[in-house]
Protein 1
Amino acid sequence: MGWLALDYMFGHGMEVWAAQGDRERIDAANLAYIARTQDYLVAVLVVAVLALVSRARWTALSQLLAAALAGALLVTAQHSWDRSHPSPAGTASKGAASRYGENNAFRVPGEMSPASAQDAQKDADRIEPVLKRLWESGTWDPKSVRAALLEVGFQEERFGPNGEWLGGTLSVRDKEPRFETDHYITPEGARVGVRVHDDACVTAFVQKSNYQVKTNGPYPEGGCFEPPAGH
């Protein structure tokens, strides 16, 4: 049950906060949260059944309570999704959500192995104080961010003339351009991607309003960087 609370506050909550009002990123975070809650519900129900078979009554009771909580959160999340995404012409919202998930699968990061996740967190712990210092000093341009991370031991990714990887793990880029009124603008700030392993990344950003560092698996089409909308 503690996992549910932590995931809601620090997993789902941070993803929504980091979206900075981007409707598509918020929708993707909501769908990912619904999927995780469904997986958790199935897992605790399986454990509860096994506990009942083994006559471990207290274990079964605790798992059933966790399942009840997960079910309530799932119903609430699905109801919130249904209200914010009404189905046209009577189409079931579940189908709409499923199609949305399929269309945005390229923006869902891959799974990390436990060992890779630990290594990614170690690199994230090295990056976080650097970005905090830069943010507090009002410095968030890509050149300065890159230089600061190179100083603490990261090596920039290098590629050959045919795109072959030559070494390094660090990539620092401008923020993703966004459309405003009638033209695109590139917001101030920098995005950071560190390829820790083939299945593990650290992704981060720093901008005027805030900074964030997190770990995740690579994206199917964007590597460590989340692909933009409009696929």
Protein 2
Amino acid sequence: MMSTQDIIDTLAGIEPGSALDAIRARRLQARENAQKSYLSLFEPIDAGDVSLLERAAVAAFVTGLHGESPVATFYREKLAASTGGAALLGAIDAEIARGKTSGPYGSYPAGPLSVENTAGLIYRVSAASKPALGARLTAALEHAHLLVFRPRDAASSDMKALLDAGWSTTGIVTVSQLVAFLSFQVRVVSGLRTLAAVNAHKEAAS
């Protein structure tokens, strides 16, 4: 059954009729589009080249990299509730701990921006986690980490690694869309929860 409640409102703890609800209503199209994106990525009518389990696993990993939050908890629980997901939780948790870092970092092509080159973790899934994750998820997690922390380093060789692991070009696009949406969702929910806390503090002080 597809979700009808707005996922960002739920994760941010926004109640109908609240001040934050009114703020979000001012940008109704953006609100609706974000919800449509969530539904198309995580509750699709046809999962196609990326299974629901793979979507949930990538989501749990990406949101976990951003730190503890209601968003990370939501997707971890979504993975646990997915068919076969409970068996992946240990590996995903281990890879989140292994992949946590700060960014973005990486190298620009030779030129004026090269002065901004920053070294950082080049993440690879551990040998211990690979049997549980399998080749497809192993490649997907490494690709997701690249997009989150080293987008400027993305190259054709990274696409080849995904193709070699069994991903189709359509599947690669979907995984990349998942990562972009999740990074957006984490930022929006964090901002809304911060704003709610500020408003609550003001109301308490008045």
